[in-house]
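agent> fetching stored inputs for the 4'-deoxy-4'-aminopyridoxal-5'-phosphate docking request
agent> found them:
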Amino acid sequence: MTLTDLDRHHVWHPFTQAQTAPDAIPIASAKGIRLYAEDGREFLDLISSWWVNTHGHAHPTIAAAIAKQAQTLEQVIFAGFTHQPAAQLAYELVQRLPKGLTRVFFSDDGSTAVEVALKMALQYWHNQGETQRTRFLAFEGGYHGDTVGAMSAGKGCGFFDTYGSLLFEVGLLPFPETWDGDTEVEAKEQASLARLDEYLADHGNTLAAVIMEPLIQGSSGMRMCRPEFLQALATRLRAAGILLIFDEVMTGFGRTGAMFASLKAQVTPDIICLSKGLTAGFLPLSVTVASEAIYAAFLGDTFDKAFVHGHSFTANPLGCAAALASLQVFEDEQTLAKLPQIEAWHRQGLATLAAHPLVQRVRVMGTIAAFDVIATDAGYTSQIGAQLKAFFHERGLLLRPLGNVVYLLPPYCIAESELRHAYKVIFLSLMTLSP
Ligand code: PMP
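agent> prediction call returned; pasting tokens
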């Protein structure tokens, strides 16, 4: 049986159950920004394989670090045991994160990092006797993963209505989305802050935390907001004594042009969630990093205040070795210094698209560029999105529009000519749509 036969008969992929969906593309190998299919096709991976491959595929430094670690210590229980890759990684992350985030809790993926953050925030209050603080606020359009807590916090993205009976209640604030040339941004920010003020007046003493994707909401369409908004939000929450959780699962590790969106926005949250780019796409791993004050609330004479969360693979040494090697690549290749270049290339590419009558809301931040295609059917089931995706695949580009939003989020090793080629194909794709 061929790979496609095996896959067609026995594998259940995410989001592809439609009878009309084409067979999964059989990928044999990958290098840099290229994916190589079994049937000889090649794809430029312009979405970093779901936003994880920061340095491109199969980077030799990271591959070697994993191979070396696999021969020394591949896995050990992390309750009551420790190892060099985990402790060193915790140290290295703390050096790079906003000052004050000092305690690193390991888990396995972005959804779980969020789950951990929500449980931490709830128990932080519980351990101090404030058991009434059980509510969470999130943002319309926010996505935080697809475990139950993460779906609850992300119900504002609208994907999870089927699972409503599993979810807990979360309040939603409007996300003050902005784009190039937007003149209404301040009014949108004021409206969102006003909604927060109302919520604080009504429920402030029962609120545990606010969770958000800082600067860019990824899954709901690369929707961007200004640092000024995050600063105003953080100031209000600090004054009210409410915790702020930043979900930097997508924005972390250089995506916004800075190592973390929180650094770019100059806002320090109480808890931060990281995954995706943490291991540069090599292995599943995540961390939830908290302030010392939060950690202190979990210490007691006995285990009565302990945090009840631990997975079989917590702080897996292979994942930690990959993450350490990725941080090394950031240093060796001066990666952060290269990112403004990618932003400039995006701006040039988008300038050629912006004049097209179907293109709206052009936006760029760091290595992420996006625009909306005017469509009558926005959202995940957009026909235009499906049509464009097929067009891109036929021409060797891995691009997956989010509904009617086309976005690019390439690995940092992309060359100018490769990105220019991508914009040329996107331009051609727009020509196939009638205004
Ligand atoms: N938070 C954000 C902001 C994300 O973009 C994602 C993944 N798209 C997640 C959480 C969930 O991460 P994972 O898929 O690794 O569980």
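agent> quick read of the result: The longest strand covers residues 101-107.
agent> awaiting further instructions
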